[in-house]
From TrEMBL:
The keyword Transferase does not apply. PANTHER family: 6-PHOSPHO-BETA-GLUCOSIDASE, 6-PHOSPHO-BETA-GLUCOSIDASE-RELATED. One of its GO terms (molecular function) is 6-phospho-beta-glucosidase activity. The gene is chbF_4. Residues 8-138 form the Glycosyl hydrolase family 4 C-terminal domain. Its cofactor is NAD(+). This is 6-phospho-beta-glucosidase. The keyword Metal-binding applies. One of its GO terms (biological process) is carbohydrate metabolic process. It comes from the Bacteria.
């Protein structure tokens, strides 16, 4: 189990309450708990994106998309958060050029970790998954990375059939 802290416990409790409310098919109002957990404006942003795509309004919004050359010194298949023109065919990334140095180093490193984890998920490679977590600079220690992977696999086992044997052994 990962080290616990007050903030983690608060968020877990809020999310448990939210999931309980979301299971009610008669729920029509936005639960107040959303404001307490942070990200209160994400629902508004999501609705704006849906509206813009549906109306093909060509508005510019910031979303996560396949890079496709929007950031020229990152791989085309990397996921990036950039300004996009919203069309009925989805968001069209606006080319922003290169990430300046020294920011490029950390961003490239994070994209490498993301690619490692995606590859591990697509192949069921447990060791590659562990490596993707423990070499990530946002992970506090090797042990924390291993525990995070175990906790994630156990919590999501029904969605991870490629890791079924690994999960059984945990």
């Amino acid at each position: 189990m990962l080290p616990s802290c007050r903030a983690v416990e608060i968020v877990k409790n809020i999310e448990a309450e939210l999931f309980k409310k979301y299971s009610d098919p008669t729920l029509q109002d936005k639960p107040k708990e959303l404001e307490a957990r942070g990200g209160a404006l994400y629902s508004t942003a999501a609705l704006n994106v849906i509206r813009a795509i549906y109306l093909d309004d060509k508005s510019i919004q910031t979303v996560n998309v396949r890079n496709g050359g929007a950031i020229t010194n990152l791989p085309a298949d990397a996921v990036v958060e950039v300004n996009c023109v919203m069309t009925r065919n989805g968001p069209m990334p606006i080319c922003t050029g290169e990430i300046p140095s020294p920011a490029k180093g950390i961003v490239s490193m994070m994209k490498d970790y993301e690619a490692q984890i995606v590859k591990a998920a697509a192949t069921g490679d447990y060791q590659a998954l562990i490596a993707g977590f423990i070499f990530n600079p946002l992970c506090s220690s090797d042990n924390a990375g291993v525990e995070l992977v175990k906790e994630m696999l156990l919590a999501n086992k029904k969605y991870l059939p490629l890791f079924a044997k690994t999960i059984e052994a945990l």
